[in-house]
Specification:
Layout lengths: L29 E3 L24 H9 L5 E6 L2 H6 L18 E2 L4 H6 L2 H15 L3 E6 L1 H6 L3 H12 L3 E5 L7 H13 L13 E5 L7 H12 L2 E6 L5 H5 L6 E4 L2 H15 L3 E3 L5 H15 L2 H29 L3 E6 L2 H13 L3 E7 L4 H10 L5 E4 L3 H11 L3 E4 L4 H7 L2 E4 L10 H16 L16
Parallel strand pairs: 2-3, 2-4, 4-5, 6-7, 6-8, 8-9, 10-11, 10-13, 11-12, 13-14
Antiparallel strand pairs: 1-12
Helix pairs in contact: 1-7, 4-6, 7-10, 8-12, 11-12, 12-17, 13-14
Bound molecules: iron/sulfur cluster.
Length: 466
């Protein structure tokens, strides 16, 4: 706990009972829906002293690129960086599974003193010969940024020697935060795009920003197939090097989780004039819009009718189940803290559909526009927070008496330490939460977790609570 830091009363009306836990520099990154018109301060580096939930640049790049399943992913750095993202994501592949292996050059003291380029070249060559990948991504971590190995040069030599694309992912962790890693990943993917020209149908899209967690992408592919839309490249869930290399031939980029992939869509618009649209596949409303918007883009009545028919069928199938959950969950309160704010917006709507009120909503990488939307969407009094930390989140949850916490791997211990139900809406999940089927799974999980009798027997171990 940081002593002597008081809530800025102009930010909170009425003031929250969390005085003493907000650093002065973080006051403007927290707001309350309905309390004021001030735009939340966001899109900036984490404040020193605040233990941000954000990960490093390398992690950001790795989580985006990793689902390309027929590529080799080699981490140039100490072994700890490789362990950091070792198979932590539930990204599935329908074919090759090379992405599930994590390789590292395991830099040692000697390499740090004399340079690790030679070791990198030899390791990469050995791995490419052994695994025959379609491309290789070589990630630079913190220490490589410090010692200055020329990873680009090593990649050029490897590309000449092996004949496959070998891409330097310059992502030393200290250069920023996870969001900067997304940008590096987009630049790396962009280096693949345009390398092949395979013919594809005119009404083709690329799906950007879905990582096929628990097979979610396959649900979406089925929907688009029913509408008559051809999906060319999936970037990066169940991703393949050849399809990505051909991505410039699609008519449209459909971008989910814009925090990670909007930049790639921009690069492709600038270079290949491919338009993009932002969608979300979570919740009934946003999922349906994602289908209608694509049909609208192609100006195809038949496609639109098929989408309408499908949505009607899915909704009538799922409504009785959702009504059952709503009856039982009405009155429950949820806290949301996720990576991208666009997902948070969908979650607020999806929770409302099953009677759950959102009382806290935050993200690691939201933009002013995202937070404005959240503010309009949420009930008065909802706490809105950017780039939060465990101390703040714990206090907010207790202040608002949330019944369930929805977040990712780093939020799970916060919830469990307080004695609160937790729903993983990030990379560790094993059940798909996207699409109509995903909405039912989501309701089921929220119900099972929030209503579990176990919470009656837990007591807080948080020293901040008397
Ligand atoms: S911060 Fe640096 S050392 Fe730590 S995991 Fe990221 S790249 Fe590796």
């Amino acid at each position: 706990m940081i002593e002597g830091h008081k809530i800025d009363e102009t930010n909170f009306n009425p003031p929250l009972g969390v005085g003493g836990i907000l650093l002065d520099e973080r006051q403007k990154q927290v707001s309350v829906a309905g309390a004021n018109e001030r735009t939340i301060d966001c899109n900036k580096a984490s404040v020193a002293g605040s233990v941000s939930q954000r990960a490093c640049v390398f992690c950001g790049s790795r989580v985006v690129l990793y689902p390309i399943s027929d590529a080799l992913h080699l981490i140039h750095g100490p072994i700890g960086c490789a362990a950091y993202t070792w198979d932590i994501r539930g990204s599935l592949s329908s074919g090759p599974e090379l992405h599930r292996l994590s390789f590292s050059t395991d830099l040692q003291e000697r390499d740090v003193i004399f340079g690790g380029e030679k070791k990198l070249y030899q390791a990469a060559l050995e791995l490419i010969n052994a695994h025959k990948p379609k491309a290789a991504f070589i990630y630079s971590t913190c220490i490589v940024g410090v010692i200055g190995d020329d990873v680009e040069r090593a990649c050029r030599m490897l590309e000449d020697e092996t004949g496959i694309p070998v891409i330097a992912v310059e992502a030393p962790g200290f250069q920023g935060s996870k969001k900067d890693g997304y940008k590096v990943a987009c630049e790396s993917i962009f280096k693949l795009v345009g390398r092949v020209n395979n013919p594809i149908p005119a009404k083709s899209i690329n799906i950007l920003g879905d990582f096929n967690l628990a097979g979610e992408l396959w649900i979406l592919l089925e929907y688009y197939k029913k509408m008559g839309v051809h999906v060319n490249a999936t970037i990066t869930g169940d991703g393949r090097v050849e399809a990505i290399s051909n991505a410039h031939n699609a008519a449209l980029n459909v971008v989910q989780c814009s925090g990670s992939m909007n930049y790639l869509a921009k690069l492709m618009k600038d270079e290949y004039n491919i338009p993009s649209m932002r969608v979300s596949y979570f919740g009934i409303e946003d999922m349906s819009d994602a289908l209608y918007d694509v049909a609208r883009f192609f100006k195809d009545d038949d496609m639109m009718n098929k989408a309408r028919e499908m949505v009607k069928e899915e909704i009538s199938r799922m409504m009785p189940a959702l009504a059952w959950y709503k009856e039982r969950l009405t009155g429950k309160k949820a806290a949301i803290y996720v990576g991208g704010a666009f997902k948070a917006i969908s979650l607020v709507k999806a929770l409302r559909l099953i009677g759950v009120q959102t009382v806290i909503v935050g993200s690691q990488t939201g933009t002013p526009e995202d937070y404005e939307l959240i503010k309009k969407l949420c009930d008065e009094g909802t706490i809105i927070v950017d780039d939060s930390n465990p101390v703040e989140l714990s206090h907010f949850v207790k202040e608002k008496q949330a019944d369930i916490f929805i977040g990712g791997v780093k939020e799970r211990p916060i919830a469990h330490k307080i004695g609160l139900g937790f729903c993983d809406h990030n990379h560790e999940r094993k059940e798909p939460l996207a699409g109509y089927e995903g909405m039912i799974n989501f309701a089921k999980e929220i119900y099972a977790t929030a209503m579990s009798p176990v919470w009656k027997f837990t007591k807080t171990t948080d020293p901040l609570t008397p």
